[in-house]
Amino acid sequence: MNSAPVRKWLFALFGVLLGIAGGTAWAQDGAVREWTVMVYMNAKNNLEPFALSNFHSMAAVGSTPKVSVLAQLGRPSSFRYTDEDGNWSGVYRFLVNKNSKPRPGQALVDVAESGDSTDMGSPLALKQFIQWSKKTHPAKHYMLVIWNHGQGWRFQLAANSALKRNSVRAALMKQEMDTVPVTTPAVGGYRAVSSDDDTGKILYNRDVQDVIAAEFTTSKLDLLGYDACLMAMLETAYGVAPSVNVMVGSQELEPGSGWRYATWLDKLAAKPGMNAEELSKAVVESYRLQYLDEYLTTLSAVRLSAIAELAQSLSAFSDAVRQAGDAELQALRKARANVLSYGASVVPPLRTSVDLTALLKAYESNSKNAALKSKSAKVRADLAGAVISNYASSRSQYPDGETPYGSEGLAIYYPESSEVFYKDYFHEGYLKKNKDRPVDFVQKETWADLLYKLLEL
């Protein structure tokens, strides 16, 4: 007799009972909630310690009869970064109740035993988590958080395991940082978001986009949150806009502690009838209160129904600049030189994405072409109309006497030179001939065509 189904049933029952012991457990009762919050926590990398602290932050509030908080949490087996919370490895699905612990005994599902994918760098694992969440905890509204943030982001795919370990536990010495190849991918931005050390796979933005499009066909995903570095980019927003109402993400790197879940979950629990824009504002405000002006930190909420018009006005501007001659190209190149790249503060620095609004403001100050300046201002106005809420620390904005970041809501890909472009691990995604997980913004709009001229590619 095959005893696996019995074991799975007992495992799930045991998990629910333990959840009850740790606080009120809102079981899989078939009731339709106001919100189901799905957190895809890929900690199968050097961000493992932060995943546990974020889980505890969620459990400080937990689920209610009207709000379900679900987490798929993966911890690495190939290399461990902490022995906290039971010192386990693998992938488990949790209904996060008040005072829940991120331990296998309190999980609803052992993903490996269920037969689902444990490769959290694969679109299949994300798809199966969403399907399970919708089936077991149906709701009027859904929020999906892609979790993969942290100070160790730059080292997740480095080959040196000691370097990966130390990047979390202590400050790295410069000579250690210098051993990281410049081609080591930055997990975040327009191309990828999540890495699984056990499998060596990356979850590409195109994968996230395609999974959401397939799973939310009759109605859009209400809110997509990226608790990850560098995700508030026009390219990212454009890709998911057909299937998502609101996106929250950071233009800059995120500190290791990421979002403060307890703060905004507490607001949602108190007002479960809030809509996606209200919830996105609560997330941004909680992040502002958490970091204030201590670091280079940003977070923005974007209304994705406005992205098509924004992209259209940017393409119109791009076409006009391409046709206007060398003087306008030079004005835009000068503007790029006077705006800081996100990730410029780390070693080795990133030099690939900048705030679109700050770039256009700098261009307008350089250009003498009134018609082009008007087109640039139209892009800025459309972008401002798309931004629901925006937070940036003082240093991440326009500090006096310093080269600014700007940080007004959305970044765009603009490497500072052709050399930087070709050294970018993901640069092929910005070629129109690329067929591997194509970036819709690159394929359908004309900013890339202008970029080729600006960089003389």
Care to describe what's here?
This protein has 457 residues and is an alpha/beta fold. The chain has helices spanning 4-22, 48-59, 111-114, 123-136, 161-169, 174-177, 205-215, 234-240, 261-270, 276-291, 307-324, 326-337, 356-366, 370-386, 418-423, 440-444, 447-455; strands spanning 33-42, 67-75, 90-95, 109-110, 139-148, 192-196, 201-204, 221-228, 244-249, 298-303, 353-355, 387-392, 411-413. It has a 9-stranded mixed β-sheet, sandwiched between helices. The chain has a two-stranded antiparallel ribbon with strand order 6-7. Helix 9 (261-270) packs antiparallel against helix 10, helix 11 (307-324) packs parallel to helix 17 (447-455) and helix 13 runs antiparallel to helix 14. The longest helix is centred in the first third of the chain and has 19 residues, at 4-22. The chain starts with a helix and ends with a helix.
